[in-house]
Write a structure and sequence with these properties.
The protein is mostly beta strands. The protein has two domains: about 180 residues, Jelly Rolls, CATH 2.60.120.260; about 80 residues, Sandwich (Immunoglobulin-like). The protein contains three helices and 20 strands. Strands 2, 5, 7, 8, 9, 11 and 12 form a seven-stranded antiparallel sheet that branches. Strands 1, 3, 4, 6, 10 and 13 form a six-stranded antiparallel sheet that branches. A hairpin with a 6-residue loop joins strand 14 and strand 15. The radius of gyration is 20 Å and the shape is globular. The N and C termini lie far apart (about 60 Å).
């Protein structure tokens, strides 16, 4: 009896540990099974125009639901900024994630997307941004959220003091439009549409992590780099994205080692994603 009880406690602790490694209740919002009252997304302050659920017209077209938010722009107070925040499923430990990716569409005016968080180390925001113009329609946006990609900022909740602490214990997650790293964003007359919000992790699914955990060597690199997969029993999809979310490479691989010539790439951070039957895994590569 004591052995069974001890085993149960160990399993319970392990389950809690795994849960604590990802944002509460998972790490993706596609709004398909949601409604306006169950999205858990809000707008700062007593906004007269909070985020709302749209049943159709997302990136996949008809019947693809998404979230929209109206900002009223300069001259207004509440509801004047393009910002949405979540204090529910997008809280917890982000330290195991390399980026946040989502589909976005800008209406009325162009939007410059960033992510921001408030947590144990105060307020932080992404140093990098992605501009979505009104002419582009739906666009995939990727925002790196590693320690080096975020910086402390001021806010009414608490000025940032430690990026790592907030990444490890996030109380509030935000998507904003801001010309510079900020927690509240800029005042702008626009409609911000969002869908398929997902956190990209180096952990991925347990099956993929165990069987297809890949390495990039050298990293950083400047000419030829090698992707090494310990086991390969299926064709894998290789994708590379730049800091703006633009897909630079899309190919299938069947070898345990794949060489890439990165000599023509601009210096900076890239996201390398490998996908297969068991899921996907994304790692960060630095071109020097």
């Amino acid at each position: 009896m004591k052995i069974k009880l001890l085993s149960f406690i160990v399993l319970l602790l392990l389950a809690f540990t795994v849960q604590a490694q990802i944002p509460t209740s998972g790490n993706e919002d596609d709004f398909t099974m949601m409604s306006e009252g169950t999205m858990n997304w809000s707008e700062a302050g007593s906004s007269p125009n909070p985020p709302y659920w749209v049943a159709s017209g997302g990136p996949a077209g008809a019947s693809d639901a998404y979230m929209a938010n109206v900002s009223s722009g300069p001259g207004m107070t509440a509801g004047s900024r393009a910002i949405v925040y979540n204090q529910s499923q997008w809280t917890g430990d982000f330290s195991g994630f390399v980026a946040v990716q989502f589909d976005a569409r800008a209406n009325t005016n162009d939007l410059e997307f960033r992510v921001a968080m408030y947590g144990a180390g105060g307020s932080i925001a992404s140093s990098n941004s992605v501009v979505v113009t009104t002419a582009e329609g739906w666009k995939s946006v990727t925002i790196p959220i590693g320690t080096a990609d975020m910086q402390t900022v001021t806010s009414n909740l608490g000025t940032g003091t430690d990026v790592d602490l907030t990444l490890q214990d996030c109380f509030e997650f935000r998507i904003v439009s801001a010309s510079a790293p900020a927690f509240i964003g800029d005042k702008i007359d626009a409609i911000m549409d969002l869908d398929n919000i997902v956190a990209l992790s180096t952990l991925s699914t347990p099956e993929f992590e165990k069987e297809q955990d890949f390495q990039i060597t050298p990293n950083p690199g400047n000419s030829i780099v090698t992707l090494k997969v310990p086991v390969i029993d299926e064709e894998l999809k290789l994708e590379v994205f730049d800091i703006l979310g633009k897909k630079l490479l899309n190919r299938n691989i069947i070898a345990m080692e794949t060489r890439l010539n990165v000599g023509s790439w601009k210096n900076g951070v890239y996201l390398v994603r490998l996908s297969g039957e068991f899921g996907s895994q994304t790692k960060r590569f630095i071109k020097q």
